[in-house]
Amino acid sequence: MCEKLFTKDEEEKIIAYSDGNVKPLDECENTKEAYFKKEEANGNLYRLLAERFQLYNCVYPKDKTLSCAPNCDDKFFYLYLKNIGKTHEYDFPLENGGTVTAKVDIFNPFVSVTFENETREMVNPQWHLLISLYAYHDAVHNHENEKLKKAEINKTRKIVNRVLKTWISEAKF
To answer: Alpha-carbon dihedral of residues 102, 139, 132, 72, nearest 10 degrees?
Structure first.
């Protein structure tokens, strides 16, 4: 039984912000400025998750259990996503009984952008919304994964911030 079903409003966001439905990030100047100039990087949960995914991506080909990584909800979330077997789609359960599929690069949270005439890496706000926020909540509320259930997980964690809000308003065609 699902504890967190996605609403019509969330379904519309998932569709609107999936691959192919948003402006390229390089065209979102306000979003890049918010990320690089206005947001504190230290202690930022979605940036930490993205950095861990980057680390796990290096380790996973040799160690499918990530045994060398400390146990934490981010590690179990990553392994849950790997078990799904998809790399560019994630299915969300809806209140109406159906599902909606997000098209997003699940395991590559960072993208290269040009900001102030320099190429830089930033967490893709699309990944932030669809994976670190929506898919995370789906995983911890709706899926029978004992490690996720036993991990100390903040089931109400919300990682909506200035960068994500700016991108949501700026990225729509």
So the answer is: -150
